């Protein structure tokens, strides 16, 4: 099943700085077709925050960054 990331979000993610933790998370989630709503629920943030991270518009705050690192590790297994 595809969760249908928009072409716009995918393009924003591709053009964003790959060193950004939220952008890295976005690339992995897009690759593995993990829905934004699942990521938001898992990290305890809004869907809008996740979209903004994926697009490189904003950066996650330090407490959430630690959760993201663990989540990325889990997704890459």
Biggest β-sheet description = none
Q: What best-fitting shape do the alpha-carbon axes yield?
A: globular
How many domains comprise the coordinates?
A: 1
Strand content: under 5%
**Helix amount, in percent?**
55-70%
Total count of helical runs of at least 4 residues = 5
Could you spell the SSE succession in H and E letters? HHHHH
**CATH T-level fold name:** 434 Repressor (Amino-terminal Domain)
Named at the architecture level, the CATH assignment is Orthogonal Bundle
Number of strands: 0
CATH class, please?
A: Mainly Alpha
Uncertain stretches = none
- Provide mean pLDDT, rounded: 93
Q: What gap, in angstroms, lies between the N and C termini?
A: 20 Å
Rg over C-alpha atoms, rounded to the nearest angstrom: 11 Å
Structural class category: mainly alpha
Question: Can you lay out the helices and strands and say which pair or pack?
Answer:
Blueprint (H helix, E strand, L loop, with lengths): L6 H9 L5 H12 L3 H8 L3 H9 L6 H14 L2
In short:
The protein contains 5 helices and no strands. With 77 residues, the chain is mostly helical.
Give a verbal description of the structure.
The protein is built from 5 helices and no strands. It has a single domain, classed as 434 Repressor (Amino-terminal Domain). The radius of gyration is 11 Å and the shape is globular. It has 77 residues and is mainly alpha-helical.
């Amino acid at each position: 099943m595809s969760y249908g990331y928009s072409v716009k979000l995918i393009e924003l993610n591709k053009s964003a700085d790959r060193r950004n933790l939220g952008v890295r998370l976005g690339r992995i989630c897009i690759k593995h077709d993990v829905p934004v709503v699942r990521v938001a629920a898992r990290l305890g943030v809004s869907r809008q925050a996740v979209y903004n991270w994926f697009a490189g518009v904003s950066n996650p705050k330090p407490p959430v960054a630690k959760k993201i690192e663990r989540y990325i590790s889990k997704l890459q297994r």
